[in-house]
Every structure is written in C-alpha cells, then in structure tokens.
Backbone:
C-alpha cells in the first residue's frame, strides 16, 4: 500500500483576512504543519495545491469582473499568480511537500486533479507513477476544493480518507453536506490523531 497526502489550497487568500478567507483557515495551516512533523514519513508522496490564477483575465469567467460575484460560479479576485494572496499560509511548513501543484491558470479549477506541477506533470500521472492506492486529504475549503479533490480521487480509484480536524470550510452547512456526500461515495471521515 502506497499512500499520499493532499494539502489543498492552504493559501493566504483562503485564510482569515484573505480575499475569500474562511474561519479556522490559519488554525488548519498550523495543525497540518504539526501533523507533518509527526507523520510525513507515513507517506510516499505529499502533494500541496494552490490556486494560481492569471492576473490579466477573468480566468474563464471565474473572477467576477462585470457584476458582483455569485459565490457559486463567480468569485472575487483571489490567488493571483505571484501575489501574497496566492502564497501558502505562513503557518504551513512546505519543506516536506514532494509535489507543488498549481491550478486555475486561465480557467476555473477546484480539484487538485485539474492542476499540474511546474514541470507539467499531472496528479493522475504522479499517483500512477508512485503506485498510490490511498490518499489522505487536508486543507481548504471543505465544501469546494477539498470536496472536488476527494471526489476525483475516488473516481480515480483511490481509497480516500479525509481528516475532519485538518479541513476548514466556507459554511458549516455546506461543509457538513460535502462530508456526508463524500462519505456516501466511499471516503472515510476520521480525525488525524
């Protein structure tokens, strides 16, 4: 059994004070770092994703430019490539990350599977190359990018576990619904301890 850890979008713009900050985001960043200190060796590979949107476009309609955002299909400008908002949160230590994945360059993207490494490798290929059978998932936001990444991992045939104490969501109701949906699809919901 080869295991990977996904750290989804633990970025400044998705934590408190950011363009789309969620409550508890900074605490999740620090908690993931503590988890990595104790458990990084349990994983064959560790993936960390970031939204990495183009500055000079609406990214396929993802950024609301002509009307207020609807927070379903359109969003305020966030995680623009090369800005502080797109950086990992400072409480997240990334020294144990094997692959850094950028997603949403010119297009809407929620799942880590929609991204690539700087060298152009896809998550699908990297998982296959490393014989990954199991994926543990952490990050932000439970009800959007964590949900999309977990669904894609399940569809790719991996066994998925979501650490419920290492995720933060936009809203309690939609986060609970996302976790219930993922459990129904076969994901295991557990605390990291």
Residues:
């Amino acid at each position: 059994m080869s295991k990977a850890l996904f750290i989804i979008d633990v970025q400044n713009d998705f934590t408190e004070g950011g363009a789309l900050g969620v409550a508890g985001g900074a605490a999740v960043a620090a908690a993931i770092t503590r988890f990595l200190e104790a458990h990084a060796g349990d994983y064959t590979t560790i993936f960390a994703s970031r939204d990495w949107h183009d500055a000079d476009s609406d990214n396929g309609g993802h950024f609301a430019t002509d009307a207020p955002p609807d927070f379903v299909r359109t969003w305020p400008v966030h995680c623009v490539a090369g800005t502080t908002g797109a950086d990992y949160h400072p409480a997240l230590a990334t020294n144990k990350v094997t692959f850094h994945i950028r997603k949403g360059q010119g297009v809407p993207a929620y799942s880590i599977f929609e991204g690539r490494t700087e060298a152009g490798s896809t998550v699908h290929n990297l998982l296959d190359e490393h014989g990954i059978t199991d994926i543990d998932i952490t990050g932000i936001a439970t009800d959007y990018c964590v949900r999309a990444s977990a669904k894609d991992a399940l569809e790719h045939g991996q066994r998925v576990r979501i650490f419920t104490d290492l995720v933060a969501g936009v809203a309690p109701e939609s986060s609970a619904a996302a976790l219930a949906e993922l459990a129904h699809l076969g994901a295991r919901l557990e605390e990291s301890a």
Q: What stands out?
A: Residues 25-39 form the longest helix (15 residues). Helices lie at 25-39, 123-129, 142-155, 172-185.
